[in-house]
Specification:
The complex is a heterodimer. By secondary structure, chain A is mainly α. Chain A is about 60% helix and about 0% strand. In chain B, strands 1-2 form a two-stranded antiparallel sheet. The chains are: A mainly alpha, B mainly alpha.
């Protein structure tokens, strides 16, 4: 009786998860492209701002 | 993707979910709820995954406060994001399950209310992150919120015992003596889904962590470029 209803709940749940993974994948490939296009600059600065500069 | 760990986690999650789906749709029906019981096999694993994600946020927030490295702040945010998605899916499947079983989509039952409050706490976590520009100040405040917010988990879990209302007590009781009140075939479907969603959490964390690290690298390069341009101007 509730077969279609239950299937629909599964479809939306798994659809959301698949959508989220696709969104991450698309962003990842876009970011990889951006990183490949722009050569590494000033690598000496790369990690310095990852840690707070002052006594925070 | 060339990353072997991501690939491995992805394959484990996929196989686990496929097996979980198979068991969920072949497990026997409940005497009273009939097919509706199948919602249980995704409702509880999504809730479990949200707990796992918020615990992840707490752990990364604590590590950030000790190490003060933004990498851990990014991971805490990634985990909270997965938690928000999973809490939303838990409320979605739960309210749809409630309509034919309880006769209503929503009730201000303690379990439902605390879940909604938990969702609001972590949505607030992201609103707060969006409002602060100073990355280290943002990370500090987010870490405190990420740790305090975890209090939601024991309150949410215990709410069905503390304030008895419409929501059932857990089918798998883990406090005190372990007690599972479900048919063995139902248990296989349930634990398979639980394991698959656990693997999925680590897979999503891995992907989201890589993505945030790349974003940070691009941002850093842009900042370095700006710094270089400014230095050139000052030299002229």
């Amino acid at each position: 009786m509730y077969d279609i209803f239950v299937n629909w709940v599964y479809f939306v749940t798994f659809g959301s998860l698949i959508g989220y993974i696709i969104w991450i994948m698309l962003n990842l490939s876009q970011l990889e492209q951006t990183l490949e296009q722009a050569p590494e600059q000033n690598s000496a600065h790369k990690n310095t701002s990852e840690k707070p500069s002052g006594n925070t | 993707m060339k990353d072997h760990i991501s690939m491995m986690l992805g394959v484990i999650s996929l196989l686990g979910l496929l097996a979980g789906l198979y068991f969920a749709f072949t497990a026997p029906l409940d005497v009273n709820q009939k097919e509706l019981v199948r919602i249980y096999y995704i409702h509880v694993p999504t809730a479990w995954m949200s707990y796992l994600a918020y615990i992840g946020t707490m752990i990364f927030s604590l590590v950030y406060l000790f190490k003060r490295h933004l990498r851990f702040d990014r991971l805490a945010a990634a985990s909270a994001e997965i938690g928000v998605l999973m809490t939303a899916l838990t409320l979605f499947s739960g309210s749809l399950w409630a309509r034919p079983t309880w006769g209503t989509y929503w009730d201000w039952d303690p379990r439902l209310t605390t879940t909604a409050v938990g969702l609001l706490i972590y949505v607030g976590y992201f609103i707060m992150r969006g409002l602060l520009d100073d990355v280290h100040r943002r990370a500090r405040i987010a870490a405190v919120l990420g740790i305090v917010g975890t209090l939601y988990i024991p309150i949410n879990y215990m709410s069905v015992y503390w304030w008895r209302s419409i929501h059932q007590t857990p089918t798998v009781r883990i406090l005190g003596k372990l007690h599972i009140s479900a048919d063995q075939e139902m248990q296989i479907a349930f634990f398979m889904m639980l394991a698959a969603f656990t693997a999925l959490y680590f897979y999503l964390m891995r992907l989201r962590g890589i993505m945030l690290a790349k974003e940070a690298l691009i941002l850093q390069r842009e900042e370095d470029l700006q710094l270089g341009i400014q230095q050139e101007h000052s030299n002229v």
